[in-house]
Design brief:
Elements (H helix, E strand, L loop, with lengths): L1 E9 L6 H13 L3 E15 L4 H4 L3 E9 L2 E16 L2 E10 L7 H7 L3 H10 L4 E16 L5 E15 L2 E16 L8 H16 L4 E2 L4 H13 L2
Antiparallel strand pairs: 1-5, 1-8, 1-9, 2-3, 2-6, 3-4, 4-5, 6-7, 7-8
EC number: 3.6.1.25
Protein name: Inorganic triphosphatase
Keywords: Hydrolase
């Protein structure tokens, strides 16, 4: 089991290109940060018709990652119960490669070590269907702090999409994610979180439009789905 720790910062959906470029330029110049190129991510989220996973605060995703010069890869991801405060999201996460454009739930069940989530997948897995998508271009940097703490910085620009009766409904998605990759001494003193918040403060100074966001991409999709369906 992996524990994902990331700080999420949202930006207005109508962010002007000049402001997006200002953020990119700031990150390109940030001491300790190394640009890691772009990825195009197609993310399909699954749940039962009754939204059993959402009610259990779990998220099930199939992701296609493509980048120039490399073959794309399909990954399946399960995220379980977690918490979000001041934009810092902490939750259980399991991610595995899959052979193609289909979930392989048996492998996720074998990997998951949260019994409640295992039981949910066993009982409801056969009923899951695609509910919505998040599709975006991700620009990446790897940041190394002075104490060796490693953070992945991702700037995402794209959309959340829900298709109902042949009509595609969308809303813009523009956000920055700061994910803790590694911290000395297993982060027993919470230095990783302090590094994330310090990075966020630096980015807000460069781009005041940034704001802490406790809403995950999955939650954005469920919210749009509810708006479209009216329930």
């Amino acid at each position: 089991m992996a524990i994902e720790r990331e700080l999420k910062l949202a930006l207005p959906g109508d962010l002007p290109a000049a402001r997006a470029n200002a953020l990119i330029e700031h990150l390109d110049r940030l001491p300790g940060a190394e640009a890691r190129g772009e990825r195009h991510l197609v993310n399909r989220y699954f749940d039962t018709p009754s939204l059993a996973l959402a009610h259990a605060k779990a998220a099930l995703r199939l992701r296609y990652v493509a980048r120039d010069g490399h073959a794309g890869q399909w990954l399946q991801t399960l995220k379980s119960v977690g918490e979000a405060r001041d934009g810092l999201h902490v939750r259980h996460e399991w991610e595995l490669p899959v052979k193609g454009e289909a979930l392989e739930l048996a492998a996720l069940i074998a990997a998951c070590d949260v019994q409640q989530t295992v039981e949910l997948l066993r009982s409801e897995g056969a009923n899951v269907v695609a509910q919505f998508e998040t599709n975006f271009v991700r620009r990446l940097w790897r940041y190394i702090a002075g104490d060796g703490t490693a953070v992945e910085i991702a700037f995402d620009q794209g959309e959340v999409a829900v298709a109902i009766d042949g009509t595609r409904h969308t809303e813009p998605l523009v956000e920055v994610e700061l994910e803790l990759l590694d911290a000395p001494d297993d982060d027993r003193e919470g230095q990783g979180a302090r590094i994330l918040h310090a990075l966020a403060a630096d980015l807000r100074a460069a781009l005041p439009e940034l704001r802490s966001d406790n809403v995950s991409k999955a939650q954005r999709g469920y919210r749009l789905r509810q708006q479209v369906l009216g329930h």
